[in-house]
Request: fold
Amino acid sequence: MRGMISWFAKNHVAANLLMLFLILAGIVTGLTMKVEVFPEFSLDMITVTTVYSGASPSEVEEAIVRRIEERVAGLSGIKRIDSTSREGLGTVTIEVMKDWSLKKLLDEVKSEVDSITTFPNEAERPIVREVTRRNRVISVAVYGDAPVSTIKNLAENIKDEIINLPGITQADLSGVKTGEIHVEISENTLRRYGLTLGKVAEAVRKGSLDLPAGQVKTQGGEILIRTKGRRYYADEYRDVPILTNPDGTTVTLGQIAALSDGFEDLDLEARFQGKPTALIEVFRVADQNALTVADTIKKYADRVRPTLPEGIGIGIYNDRSVMLKSRINLLLKNMAFGLILVSVLLALFLDLKLAFWVTLGIPISFLAGIWMLPRFDVSINMISLFGFIMVLGIVVDDAIIVGENIFRKYEEGVAPETGSIEGGVEVGRPVVFAVLTTVVAFWPLLSGTGNMGKVMRNIPIVVILVLMASLVESLMILPSHLNRSRTRGTRHRSKPRKEKFIAGGLKRFIAGPYHRLVTLCVRWRYATVAIGITALFLTVGLWKGGWIHFTFFPKVEGDTLTCSVTMPAGTSVQRTEQVVKGLEEAARQTIDETEKSRPKGSEPLLEYMISLVGMQTGGHGPTGDRDRREAIWHSLLHSLKGKRM
Reply:
């Protein structure tokens, strides 16, 4: 260790180059690395989903779910199997064991499921896929007083434009039904023409196809021939031939059926601010920046809002980048306060140049840690930023210990170069072990399992990397800087009166009360140990006695109010909508009453209100649920600092 500290202390160019490299590498990495709200990780889960239309939950369990469970239960690598049977839908969720090959097990599950031949004929083919967690950043609502078809068409166009925006590649449309073309034929008409619904469906299928017809080679090149016959609207199907008579006449679909454009028969409705809406969820994928994605969507919404038809609006909600941005601002604010406080205290008690170089160790350590984060598959997210905030108060300790000991050597009259080397070597070993003990304390978090372990691993990685970087900075870079600055300065420069008074007061406190207290503790060492053990027992007693409560995740007031209502089976959609409208009205009345007691000019409490009927909200956004009529009322209240409802 002496050789390393001595070499860097004598070669200030090498120390400066190392410092510049860490700073530049950290800045470049920080500007180009992945920024997301929550860390991205694999869920290690496989789902097998089967649609069995019209079947009850018990029928789905008996005919679908149990057969899948029995077939895959014997596969190696399965930790747990969970199943859900709903009306017309069966889902089997397989949790994979730790460190087991997910891709291999996925292939084995597919093979076993495909080999099942006893599924009902009415059931669709099972879908086997890996469960992935998509990172939703922000959501867009297209709403207004207009028909649902109009809102859906506008939302589809807006979704396509959003996907074409730079830096955005994934957006999903939800809250609207899938469009369908309804063909209604009476039983008498079918009998009159000797038709069946299957024959009509086959004729319609053949009458709406895009077929390739090969290619023709010419002197100018190859010409691809294609027949375009796909139809997209009900009126386009009226001339589809259903029957051809011997005399050459035809019976078209329009002559025997009533055609109309409509939507699938699904109890589904969404409202935004009390008006019909279509929801667009925007995701961050790959190395995209969550903050950039959110800013791009907001600018796009401001740009497209004036161009929408009268009565149609576009709103932004569920912006998760706000949390990430606030966490980044908190980190920067704490770092700024830390830099100022450390600089002021060290300048008052020690030396101004020493304060500057010690304080500089904080950004150097942080940038060095950021440079190494991508090597451990860690991004800038809510969890890793928490790790940075946690280590902020620890990272400067090493530099303070080394710098103060070197400054003490200077006060004793030791030459700058010798003082830098001897001061660093004397406390080098304690500093190394101090860092290693902290590393050991955070190391067990790396062995966490499950989804929580994959999330929490960001904290120890950040803390360990920053602490190791601070060790490098305090033992290799700091002694060289102190040596250089001391050599250039005046050794016997007189200090300001205020600095002498504060530093002298600290020395008198150390030599007086503190020295007597330490002497007393050493003399009565058994009593000192007994007092420590007693304090430990009292602390444990307060915890076990219920005076200090344990909460894994503390309850924090949020900005979102959610009300979920599940109606009894068989409840009509109209009745469900009435209940939801009653909730909306009650919420508005409560908010209006609260607004009256707030100061004039205050920002409104209510930012937006979303009502979803026949849908569920979850980690992947709202999804249709066919087995029950569920109404979810969702409202976000804009909370102001110091103002609570």
Q: What stands out?
A: Residues 510 and 516 are 9 Å apart (CA to CA).
